[in-house]
């Protein structure tokens, strides 16, 4: 690893490159984030958003060793960052037996150390010296930036704002839902008051109120903030700029003579972002999507025009070359005149050949590359043995309770049910899906399941037991060779061809989630359960999935916080409330 790190109040990345033996993640990346600015990272799964955050945080080497499955990364470049820079990763660092109070107090360890240094520096002022004054000034500055005098008040405010204040500090981590653990992780990070914030998908487990609270916190943050997110509403409200890590962007920005897209700006003065396949955009996310679509159309038009010009030049050059080298003998009547004009004609023809060859070579060398095919979800394949709508209920829950996690009076799932389950973290959304899937036993009540029913759950947290196996191998192992041949993995549009043979442990969280989705839909179940399905998916793939679920050949039950999905939902909805029984009449 050849990345060097220096410290500043600003966050700067210069000439940053990361590659493996089988692929390049990004190359010669550069940008700057000043105090008070908030840069949102966007791009397809696997574009390098999490890698970039880990590099900036200084945690890449440790995380990469676990994920690269033997493929060593080559890195280079320079990172300048504030001394206290902290990362909220997608993978949470908590042990199952840790208490929430212990987690939060550990987050304050550095703040407590800054407070002790301030006290020691103040005591040292008794010795009237320039060194003591400098020490005290530095300690006071650090204490003010870490807000050491309001740690307890900030703790309670953060827990309440993120919706977990009522859970208590004595709860063990393994007693919390996945969403609650994520909220405590976010609270712990904000409580530590770092000089710079790095956030990886911070809104994945936040409801509307908690997301709005986080947006307000980030807008008031004094240091630089960099975050990766697929949440369009959050990007629009929280980001002051967007960095697109789409590897295809380099070709689009290299269009000869193409007009600059409105709002496209390079933070690095040497314009290295545009040359490196990334670009900083100064507008909102909705506007960015429009600009990017127009940019791709310009790229595609120029590519088509250049390919047509190359075909024309190749044909013209071949015809001209044949005219020069026809090898036909000079006729008797032209022999006398040839000495006077033959050399001139040959020179003119030869010049035309050279000019044609020069234009051809120049265009072949400078032509824009073909736009990479976007990864497009191909929809739900055939092969589900769906029950007829008139054939009766598939699942029925009556007076169901899972102590401390779920209370539900009744719920019925018919063959073509479309149900969206909402509610705050801890209300029991994931628990309900696990009950429907048969993975969670109920403490009271009854669950009736139709005979021969196949139910599949796409979980929030994907784990593969064999990280060295490739997606193609896992796909064949799960479905069987016959079904894998009938519905090839590549036909689903969820895993790029270049990633099908890579170790699954080397894939991003989003790529692993897409593989888990492929394993389910390749053999569509009668009841498809999805827990936060748009988490870790790019906006394009999330939209494709939402549209495909509308035509799914069986029942669909989704638990989600996604504001975009909820606004567009056309089926029934069920809102759960923690500790309160919910009846079928609550469906709307």
From TrEMBL:
One of its GO terms (molecular function) is ATP hydrolysis activity. The keyword Ribosomal protein does not apply. InterPro entries: AAA+_ATPase (IPR003593), ABC_transporter-like_ATP-bd (IPR003439), ABC_transporter-like_CS (IPR017871), ABCF (IPR050611), P-loop_NTPase (IPR027417). SMART domains: AAA. The keyword Translocase does not apply. Keywords: ATP-binding, Nucleotide-binding, Repeat. Residues 11-272, 358-587 form the ABC transporter domain. PANTHER family: ATP-BINDING TRANSPORT PROTEIN-RELATED, BLL7188 PROTEIN. This is Macrolide transport system ATP-binding/permease protein. The lineage of its organism: Bacteria, Bacillati, Actinomycetota, Actinomycetes, Micrococcales.
């Amino acid at each position: 690893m050849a990345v060097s790190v220096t410290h500043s109040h600003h966050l700067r990345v210069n000439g940053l490159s990361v590659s493996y033996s089988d692929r390049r993640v990004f190359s010669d990346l550069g940008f700057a984030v000043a105090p008070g600015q908030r840069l949102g990272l966007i791009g397809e799964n696997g574009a390098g958003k999490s890698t970039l955050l880990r590099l900036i945080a200084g945690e890449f080497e440790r995380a990469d060793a676990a994920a690269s499955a033997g493929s060593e990364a080559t890195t280079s470049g320079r990172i300048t960052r504030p001394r206290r820079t902290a990362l909220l990763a997608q993978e949470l660092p908590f042990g199952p037996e840790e208490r929430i109070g212990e987690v939060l107090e550990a987050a304050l360890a550095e703040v407590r150390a800054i407070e002790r240094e301030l006290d020691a520096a103040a005591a040292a002022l008794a010795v009237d010296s320039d060194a003591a004054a400098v020490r005290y000034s530095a300690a006071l500055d650090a204490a003010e930036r870490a807000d050491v005098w309001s740690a307890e008040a900030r703790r309670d405010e953060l827990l309440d704002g993120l919706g977990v204040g009522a859970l208590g500090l004595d709860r063990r981590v393994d007693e919390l839902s996945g969403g609650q653990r994520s909220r405590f992780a976010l609270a712990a990070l904000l409580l530590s008051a770092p000089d710079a914030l790095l956030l990886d998908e911070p809104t994945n487990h936040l409801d509307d109120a908690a997301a709005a609270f986080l947006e307000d916190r980030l807008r008031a943050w004094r240091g630089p903030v960099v975050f990766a997110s697929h949440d369009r509403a959050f990007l629009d409200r929280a980001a002051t700029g967007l960095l697109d890590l789409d590897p295809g962007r380099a070709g689009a920005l290299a269009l000869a003579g193409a007009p600059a897209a409105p709002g496209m700006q390079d933070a690095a003065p040497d314009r290295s972002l545009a040359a490196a396949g990334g670009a900083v955009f100064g507008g909102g996310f909705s506007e960015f999507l429009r600009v990017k679509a127009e940019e791709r159309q310009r790229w595609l038009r120029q590519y088509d025009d250049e390919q047509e010009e190359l075909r024309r030049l190749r044909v013209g050059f071949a015809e001209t070359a044949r005219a020069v080298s026809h090898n036909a003998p000079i006729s008797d009547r032209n022999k006398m005149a040839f000495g006077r004009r033959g050399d001139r004609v040959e020179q003119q023809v030869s010049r035309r050949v050279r000019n044609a060859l020069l234009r051809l070579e120049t265009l072949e060398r400078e032509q824009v590359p073909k736009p990479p095919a976007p990864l497009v979800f191909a929809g739900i394949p055939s092969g589900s043995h769906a029950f007829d709508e008139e054939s009766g209920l598939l699942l029925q829950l009556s007076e169901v309770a899972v102590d401390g996690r779920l209370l539900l009076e009744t719920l019925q799932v018919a063959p073509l049910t479309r149900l969206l389950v909402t509610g705050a973290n801890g209300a029991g959304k994931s628990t309900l899906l696990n009950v429907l899937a048969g993975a969670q036993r109920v403490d009271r009540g009854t669950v009736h399941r139709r005979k021969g029913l196949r139910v599949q759950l796409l979980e929030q947290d994907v784990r593969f037991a064999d990280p060295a196996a490739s997606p193609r191998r896992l796909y064949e192992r799960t479905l069987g060779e016959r079904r894998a041949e009938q519905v090839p993995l590549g036909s689903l549009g969820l895993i790029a061809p270049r990633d099908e043979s890579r170790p699954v442990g080397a894939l991003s969280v989003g790529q692993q989630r897409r593989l888990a989705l492929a394993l389910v839909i390749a053999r569509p179940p009668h009841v498809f359960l999805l827990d936060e399905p748009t988490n870790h998916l790019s906006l394009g793939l999330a939209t494709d999935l939402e549209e495909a679920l509308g035509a799914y050949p069986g029942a669909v039950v989704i638990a989600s916080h996604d504001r975009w999905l909820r606004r567009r939902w056309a089926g029934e909805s069920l809102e759960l409330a923690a500790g309160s029984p919910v009846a079928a009449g609550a469906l709307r």
